[in-house]
Diaminopimelate decarboxylase (Neolewinella aurantiaca), 417 residues
Amino acid sequence: MTLQEGRYQIGGADALEIVERFGAPVYVYDAATMKRQYKRMTSAFSKVKRLRINFACKALTNLNVLRVFRELGSGLDTVSIQEVEMGLLAGFEPHDILFTPNCVSLDEISQAVAKGVRINIDNIEILEQFGDRHPEVPVCIRINPHIMAGGNSKISVGHIDSKFGISIHQVPHVLKVVEAMNLKIEGLHMHTGSDIYDAQVFLRAVEILLSAAADFPDLDYLDFGSGFKVPYKEGGIATDIEDLGEQLGDRFNEFCGEYGRDLELMFEPGKFLVSEAGYFLVKTNVVKTTTASVFAGVDSGLNHLIRPMFYEAYHHITNLSNPGGKTRIYNVVGYICETDTFGINRQLSEVREGDILAMANAGAYSFMMASNYNSRFRPAEVMVIDGEAHLIRRRETMEDLLGTQVDLNVLKESVPA
């Protein structure tokens, strides 16, 4: 977001004009930022002969966003059969979709097999069931490297007490299952967690996966997950993707030489690709002064952006309507009837009723985690392409809220006495 002649722009489109056209609250995504992040990552690993970036679509699954990444040459990382369906609707080829579920039934995995997508399994019992039902289908195995990474316990998934993946210590058991059932293992996968900023921690996990890979002779790819950190504050800590690309690229090429052929190097970034592309624009309903604080109460809440309350995530807040105003301290809060805070003690240009505030880093896991709590409608989504704003999801209505409910009074009236 840039300030041009006293007006904030998102991707070249005037932010306040977007609110005038589409209303508030509204999510706004800059397609140019998504493309920049994708190209930055492919450039960082340019020395790798076979590279595949699979967008982790759970971060932002709007069909129009998926198409942006498909056109860039991305694959897709999915975690539910519904995401698989979305990927196919967006035009991805089945072979370019990797299905990496957790704690789902074999029936759901079989639905994905029927779609022709690649399968990633993280449970020995399910692996055995899969081999019995689909002995001819190549499969990837998710390994838990027991490396702790992540800025919050809820997004740290590679530690020893995690529900994700098959323990690296159980690989001998996996090898016995593979041999007994004559399974074709085409890939190995790991994911340590989100908010990785220390390349050395990540590289330790890489060595663990490479060590395991040496025991699987028919691999086609290695998937190293993602979780790369993006900055949430000016000057904030972020993963040095270029440094990681230099180090990991060299090590991966060395391993391929030892393995005897060039494997494909996969990553599945979500936040890295879309977090900085997104902004959440809200309108100030009230400014309330108490004996201890000044609250800016807005027309949204944790029903639309739960990350501050759920993860204690920081989203930088800017007053778009009064960029030159005197700086004051505010607690920015929502309209949900419980503690519902977006930011505490934030320095903002003086906030007035009706002012539009923008919350940054709202491209990943923001709209996707929105709900109808308090029977509120979910907001609209807008994407800016080449400086022009396009509606990519309309705001919900009362009809949407009632669309799946069954009115028992209507049923009773339709049944003869």
Remarks:
- The two ends are 64 Å apart (CA to CA).
